Amino acid sequence: MDIAKLCEEALEIGFTLAEPMRVDTIHLREEVREMCAVNKCHAYQTNWSCPPSCGTIEECQERVNRYETGIIVETTGQLEDDFDFETMDATSKLHSNHFVEFLKKLRKEHPELDVLPLGAGECTHCKKCTYPDAPCRFPDKLCFSMEASGLVVNEVCTANGLKYNHGKDTICYTACFLLE
Ligand code: SF4
Q: If you measure from the C-alpha of residue 143 to the centroid of ligand 1, how many angstroms do you get, rounded to a whole number?
């Protein structure tokens, strides 16, 4: 598997940064999951990809352990000031588009790879998630988030040589693709 080439492909899609990711830098923490329960993002208990239905921290660890390597990516945006919610929202959407496009490309052009995508928020594949009334409509398309899996995003970025804090008036969204 040519990880450097896959990073180049991620940059071509539009991510601002892309680096190879070592799976041994992933340390899942219960504290991150506890922050999900505070429900600032309003996704807790609303989606199959989020806690509690995304599995216990041990189940998330088992999921991650199946992979040998990966790619970690960022989309960054320049804000006018701390209240530039328009750019925050636009950068989030851009990141989400990059995430979907790159995942599609990986699956289409590299069918030999088993990919576990971990995104920046809850799974948005369907307009409305079936949770909790019916099983996930597309289990093979379901995307867990990095935080829902217990990853400390800034820690894992730094451990893989990816700058996380880009300075005053910047916003940064992260994702990773574990590969085998
Ligand atoms: S694929 Fe659809 S039903 Fe399944 S977790 Fe994602 S949004 Fe929910």
A: 8
Q: What number of residues does the chain have?
A: 180
Dmax over CA atoms of the chain, in Å, equals 44
Query: Going edge to edge, which strands form the sheet with 69-78?
Result: 17-22, 69-78, 170-179, 115-119, 144-145
Angstrom distance (rounded) from CA 106 to CA 13 = 11
Q: What is the pLDDT of residues 26-51, one digit of tens each?
A: 999 988 888 877 777 777 888 999 98
Residues in contact with ligand 1 by the CB-under-6-Å rule are: 47-49, 123, 125-126, 129-131, 136-138, 141-142
The residue assigned the tokens 């599609």 is 104
Closest CA to 20 of 116, 152, 162, 166: 162
Beta-carbon neighbour count of residue 66 at 10 Å? 11
Using the predicted structure, report yes or no on whether residue 97 has a pLDDT greater than 80.
yes
**133 alpha carbon to ligand 1 midpoint, in Å?**
12
Q: Which atom of ligand 1 is nearest to the CA of 49?
A: 5
52 CA distance to ligand 1 centroid (A)?
A: 14
Give the distance (Å) from ligand 1 centre to CA of residue 165: 31
Task: Give the DSSP H or E segment for 176.
Answer: strand 170-179
